[in-house]
Design goal:
261 residues, alpha+beta, Arc Repressor Mutant, subunit A, four-stranded antiparallel beta sheet
């Protein structure tokens, strides 16, 4: 017999199905009304049994939902840590209070797990402040911007946050590939003519692109069958400076030029 008076297990209401229709966690009292039970206190053992079976999840304070709060807590922590520079307690509070509110214990456990996995990191204080902060390892921009800004200020160098952000911006490979393709077709003597990477790197819009990103973008064009790269036959005998002007796949193969297909 279940905790529902007069009902057996086969007659249990579809609690998860009703929670899937809810926009936020529901209390035991609210669910008891939905299923026409006497009161939330009497209905709570049934809900707790559903939690124990893994069919629904507890959101604290007699709240229940069909969504697991743990992955939501992880996502919030990573998002907040990428956008703001906060100490661990402030980060937990910030991630917990968003709607729907997640129990503080769940958020703290998620933060500790993310830290042990290396996705969050305890970092040194921002210069001029005291407490250590939590940083999103994959998106440390907010932290690095403030650190660089304070360090420069310590040497009397005033730089805007926008300039620092531009310095830290990682070029998008897809965007660079489009720029290479456009420049290649612009400077080619005729459609399909080979253009050396040396000439492409001299174009103003490509001159400042890091070599690793430029090389990835060139190979992306070949993978998409938009262009073909031409192999350099004796690149191994070239000085290191001249090799750097070529495109390489990191496996000992060097390419001197590219042409549109």
């Amino acid at each position: 017999m279940s905790a529902l008076s007069g009902q057996n297990v086969l007659e249990l209401p579809d609690i998860r199905g009703r929670l899937e229709q809810a926009e936020k966690p529901l209390s035991a009292a609210a669910l008891s009304k939905l299923f026409k039970q006497k009161n939330g206190k009497a209905f709570k053992p049934v809900l707790d049994a559903e939690v124990a079976a893994g069919r629904i999840y507890s959101w604290g304070a007699s709240l229940y939902w069909h969504k697991d709060p743990r992955p939501i807590a992880r996502e919030r922590l990573l998002d907040v840590a990428a956008a703001e520079v906060l100490a661990s307690s402030a980060l937990d509070k910030r991630a917990s209070k968003d709607v729907p509110k997640i129990p503080a214990g769940v958020v703290r456990e998620a933060r500790l797990q993310l830290t042990s996995e290396g996705m969050l990191r305890i970092a040194a204080p921002i210069p001029g402040s005291k407490g250590k902060v939590i940083v999103n390892v994959r998106k440390p921009g907010a932290y690095l911007e403030q650190v660089i800004e304070r360090l420069l200020a310590g040497f009397g160098l005033d730089r805007s946050r926008e300039r620092i952000r531009e310095l830290l911006h990682e070029p998008d490979v897809r965007e660079i590939a489009d720029k290479i393709f456009a420049a290649m077709n612009r400077i080619a003597f005729s459609p399909g003519t080979t253009v050396t990477f040396y000439r492409l790197r001299q174009q103003p819009e490509l001159a400042g692109i890091p070599k690793a990103v430029f090389d990835q973008a060139a190979f992306l064009l070949q993978q998409e069958r938009k262009a073909m790269l031409a192999v350099h036959d004796h690149a191994a005998r070239l000085p290191a400076k001249e090799q750097d002007e070529l495109v390489t796949d990191g496996l000992g193969n060097y390419y001197v030029s590219i042409y549109a297909l």
